[in-house]
Structure formats: C-alpha cells, structure tokens
Specification:
This protein is of the alpha+beta class. Helix 1 runs antiparallel to helix 2 and helix 2 packs parallel to helix 3. The longest helix has 19 residues. Strands 1, 2, 3, 4, 5, 6 and 7 form a seven-stranded mixed β-sheet that branches. Strands 9-10-8-11 form a four-stranded antiparallel β-sheet. The protein is 35% helix and 24% strand. It folds into two domains: 176 residues, Formiminotransferase-cyclodeaminase, Chain B, domain 1 (2-Layer Sandwich); 109 residues, Alpha-Beta Plaits, CATH 3.30.70.
Length: 298
C-alpha cells in the first residue's frame, strides 16, 4: 500500500479550538490518519502529522490550508518561531512504496491549487524547489525575514512566488515542498541569557561549522523564562539525535549552563530512537525502560 506523510506547520499555537478545526478539515478526507498534533504557545505554532494515500494527500493538505486561511490573520500574529503564513510550511515525505519524485509532484499540485483557488502566494522548497536558493527553508524565511518582510518584498523579482499572486494577504505565504524524514528536536537550558543560546546554536549548525545535517536557532521561552535550542536534524543516520544532544550539553557546560530538558516535536523514525537507546545504554548503563518508550497513536 502506498503511503505518504505530510507535516503541515500552522501559525497558531495558543487557541486549541482553531487548531482542532484545522485538524478536522484535514481528517475529513477519507483515508487520512492523524498521527500527531503538537501546539506550542511560545512559538505560537502547531505541527500536524498525517499519513494517507498519495491519491488524497493534496486534497487533505489543501483543506487544512483553506481552513487555516479562514481562522488565522497573520497581521495580528506574533510568536518566537519564524513564519511566513497561516499555513507556513507544508512538506510531503515518502513513507511506503512512494518515491521522492512522487512527493515533488504532490507539492507542485498542491502549490498550484493553493495559489489558484485560495490566492495565497506559494514558494516551493526542498526537493520541489525550482530555484536553487529556495531548496533550504532558512534561505526563504528566517528570524530576520518573516511575514512582515515578505509583505514588502514579494513584488521584487527575487521573491516572485512559484504560484499565486505577488501580493500578500491576511493568510500570508505558504512554503510547500518535498523532503526526507526530519527530526525536530529542542533542548531547553537553565539560563535566560540569549547571547549564550545564540553561541550554542551557532556551534551546532552546519553553515557555521557545526554538524553537517543540523539546523539550529536559539529562542527565549517566556513561560519557562529559559533559552531553547531548537534543532532540525535533516539526516538522523549521519547526525544522530544523541550526538546533537551531547554537543548541546558540552557547549552549554562551557558557559556554566545546565540542560533543563529536551523534547521532540512530531514523530521520529524508530531507527533514530533505537540508535539513541543503544548509545545511552552503552554510555550510562541505562535500562531499556529508562531510555526508550514507544507511543502508539490510535
């Protein structure tokens, strides 16, 4: 059976009712299974993970984007996480008997439909990118180039969208693409010093000399009054999760800072968890129960 995963990120992490309405729109499509839904009030962002047949993936994602455009006004949105639109990032990931090329085709179909029917500008990214510099998400939007900046820049030649108008409305801009599995992993530190956090994130990320398959940013979490190192691990086989975590610990210790806690956003491949389990069992003599928990979603 063909199976594709879609992980849309929506710019709403404080109003559970709005997020549920978006999720309900997605799962209204026959054959869609919601695997996970995460909300973060500090980032004001939610991440939904669903799987389905490629035949219905575009329809399900489109309905979620459409509902989000009705419920989320980017002109009044604020949060720690960089964002372009109500439906900010929508990647397709191959799971079973589906190629990356098929996911690229899904991204293109969805982008065209969103641009034409909803009037939302769309940038293609990842393996679906039509322009080389748009392959990396952080090249498109960042902490210093978000919704407010793209509103002013979208009419420039560099920022002409792949689909939709060169005009930004209340739903903002959507970034749609195709990629392999990605692990979203956060580590919270016992400090409120953002300068220390920025230095730690810089030591981690590939473009500043860190691990090749790590993207990292530092955020301040207002509710916990602490700094968070937020990471995307783009190849867990070459940069496993425990290696990234241990580097955060080591870099933090060099500034006299301890790790408070860590968290995963969304789902994680079983192999990645198994690798972490083996590492900590070898290093610390942990039991399986201490380092490995399998969560089954119905």
């Amino acid at each position: 059976m063909k199976l594709v995963e879609c992980v849309p990120n929506f710019s709403e992490g404080r109003d559970a009712d709005k997020v549920q309405k978006i999720v309900d729109a997605i799962k209204s499509v026959n054959g869609v299974k919601i695997l996970d839904m995460e909300m973060d009030a500090n980032h004001n962002r939610s991440v939904v993970t669903f799987t389905c047949s490629p035949d219905v993936a575009v329809e399900a994602a489109f309905l979620g984007i459409q509902r989000a455009s009705e419920l989320i006004d980017m002109n009044s949105h604020s949060g720690e996480h960089p964002r372009f639109g109500a439906s900010d990032v929508i990647p397709f990931i191959p799971v079973t008997d589906v190629s990356l090329k098929e996911c690229i085709d899904l991204a293109v179909k969805l982008g065209e439909k969103v641009g034409k029917e909803l009037g939302i500008p769309v940038f293609l990214y990842g393996e679906a990118a039509r322009v080389d510099w748009r392959k990396s998400l952080e090249n498109i939007r960042s902490k210093t180039f978000q919704f407010e900046q793209i509103k002013e820049s979208i009419s420039q030649e560099k920022y002409i969208p792949d689909f939709g108008p060169s005009k930004v409305g209340s739903a903002g801009v959507s970034i749609i693409g195709a990629r392999d599995f990605l692990i979203a992993f956060n580590v919270n530190l016992r400090t409120d010093d953002m300068e220390t956090g920025k230095k730690i994130a810089k030591a981690l990320r590939a473009k500043d000399g860190g691990f090749t398959f790590v993207k990292a940013l530092a955020f301040f979490l207002d509710d916990k009054k602490c700094v968070q190192i937020s990471m995307n691990l783009t190849n867990f086989r070459k940069t496993p999760i425990h290696r990234a975590y241990e580097l955060v610990k080591m870099e933090a210790a060099s500034y006299g800072v301890d790790v408070m806690e860590s968290e995963l956003i969304g789902l994680i491949p079983m192999d990645a968890m198994a690798d972490a389990m083996k590492f900590y069992m070898r290093m610390h003599g942990f039991s399986t129960e201490q380092v490995f928990e399998k969560k089954v979603w119905k």
